[in-house]
Amino acid sequence: MYQGTAGWRVIWLLLGALAEFLGVTAGVVLTALGLDLFLIPNKIAAGGVSGLATVIHYLTGSPVGLTMLVLNVPLFAMGIYRLGLKFGFRSLYGTISLSLFVDGLARYLPVPTHNPLLAGIFGGVLVGLGLGLVFRYRGTTGGTDLAAAVLRTYTGANVGQLLFLVDGLVVLFAGFSFHSWELAMYALITIFITSWLIDLVQEGISYTKAFFIISERIEQMAPVILQEMNRGATALQARGMYSGAAREVLFVVVNRSEVTALKDLVYRTDPHAFVVLADVHEVLGEGFKQWQKYRPPLS
Fold first, then answer.
1. Segment 202-243, tens digit of pLDDT
2. DSSP 8-state code for residue 289
3. Which residues pair with 24 in a beta bridge?
4. Which of 92, 232, 287, 295 measures 20 to 30 Å from 122, CA to CA?
5. Average pLDDT of the chain to the nearest whole number
6. Do strands 234-239 and 274-280 pair parallel, antiparallel, or not at all (unpaired)?
7. How buried is residue 160: exposed, middle or buried, by Cβ count under 10 Å (0-12/13-18/19+)?
8. DUF2179 domain: from which residue to which, for each copy (predicted)?
9. Cα dist. 53→71, 139, 172 in Å?
């Protein structure tokens, strides 16, 4: 029995590893398409190692993918030195494959547009979707995220702030090199779109809402929610810092289509209730999205 369970565990782990490999590969291909179709041909250096490699490509004629790989070598060396072998090598596949796809696909792909605004928007969409997939499947492509992690060990600053700083310096360098601040501004648009889509792919579209309800009539409200809306509710123990009084906060998660109905229900039960409504990007469990497949069994 134990051997059978162990065998299934190995199979689930292998399927999970295969899914992560395919997910990272798909993300890398989308990122390479965004660079080759839109960003590189239009001189849009949207931060990161790929942006720096784009500037160097136009200054020296060196292939963008190869330049990305060369630029990542010292970053990997510093990553291994400051963060350990595991951190450095887990980015190896994504970094090498992205460099190979960028140079390998470039010779076969047309340039759909030379309008820098369109190129910045569609390039940002593809790169954002691609990097979002890479990160969702626990891969990385080296670059500025690795540089920011290394800098953090020296400065202690927030990684997001360091990423913004590094990408900003690349955009400034591109503006000086191309003698065009318009291209730099288009690059900023691309960075914004890319960042937004990375978060969207990792966190998902907000299709549910969370209610935090503070009321003196929690006991009357909870059964109505259970019966009329067929939704679960959880009472959280809390204490008012001004009054010092103990009270309960009702936590309820509903679909967007149920928001108005729950508001009406709360108001009908207690017109003086204090309600906080928040976006929820992903809900896993009964009544909502099921857990993803290929998860190893717990026993």
1. 766 666 888 999 988 888 898 888 888 888 888 888 887 777
2. B
3. none
4. 92
5. 82
6. unpaired
7. exposed
8. 231-285
9. 8, 21, 14
The structural domains of the chain, with segments of one domain joined by +, span 2-203, 208-280
Cα of 189 vs its chain's centroid, Å? 17
Q: Which residues contact 208 (CB under 8 A, 6 or more apart)?
A: 253, 254, 255, 256, 280, 283, 288
Find tokens 């929820």 and name the residue. Answer: 280
Please name the fold of domain 208-280: Alpha-Beta Plaits (3.30.70)
Task: Enumerate residues 6+ apart whose C-beta is below 8 A from 73.
Answer: none
Q: Helices in 35-63 by DSSP H: which ranges?
A: 48-60
Biggest alpha carbon distance in the chain?
73
pLDDT of res. 73: 85
Counted residue by residue, the chain has a size of 299
Q: What are the two backbone dihedrals, phi and then psi, of residue 157, each rounded to the nearest 5 degrees?
A: -75, 165
pLDDT band at 195 (very low <50, low <70, confident <90, very high): confident
Above 60 in pLDDT, residue 86? no
User: Averaged over 123-148, what is the pLDDT?
Assistant: 82
Separation CA 209–CA 262 (nearest Å): 11
Q: Which strands, in side-by-side order, build the sheet including 208-214?
A: 234-239, 246-255, 208-214, 274-280
**DSSP conformation letters of 22-33:** HHHHHHHHHHHH
Q: How far is CA 282 from the centre of its chain?
A: 13
